[in-house]
Amino acid sequence: MATDKLIKEFFEEQFNDSSQLFLYKDKQLLDEGNFREYAEEQIGKANKVFWSVSFGLLMAVWYGTNGLINYGSDPTWFNLTVGLFLWFVALVMVWYASKEYYTIKSSMSFFIRLLDENDDHSG
Against a cut of 0.85, is the pTM above it? Predict the structure, then answer.
């Protein structure tokens, strides 16, 4: 298996720039060498963010649809702008959140499998 230093460098490079989920506690877990706990923590955070974004997406779609329906009954530029803008926000949220969620989830799941395989071979 790769050395502890190589693993720490990989995670610092991977998530420092791309994710806002890299906290002090995560850095502490990496420094202590608790890689499994770190990976499980990242998966848990990714799940929480997924549900938060899902709620925000639902709200954006709801209000965007209401804005477009209101535009149908009262055709003002404000209703049209609000409706289209919120639908655009919803699309951006889906793209960005999906990218982050699946990047973190797949890499951490793969990392846990590597740790399990290493434990099986060493024990």
Answer: no
Amino acid identity, position 75: P
Torsional sign, CA 111, 116, 121, 123:
positive
Number of other CB atoms surrounding residue 119 within 10 Å: 11
Structure tokens at 81: 């702008």
In whole angstroms, what is the distance from residue 115 CA to residue 13 CA? 20
Digit-by-digit pLDDT tens for the chain (123 residues) are 456 666 667 766 666 655 555 667 777 777 787 878 888 888 888 888 888 888 988 999 999 999 989 888 888 999 899 899 999 998 988 888 888 888 878 888 887 887 777 767 665
- The encoded tokens of residue 16 equal 């420092």
Q: What is d(CA 76, CA 61) in angstroms, rounded to the nearest whole number?
A: 19
The CA distance from 80 to 85, in Å, is: 8
Rounded CA gap, 92 and 45, in Å? 20
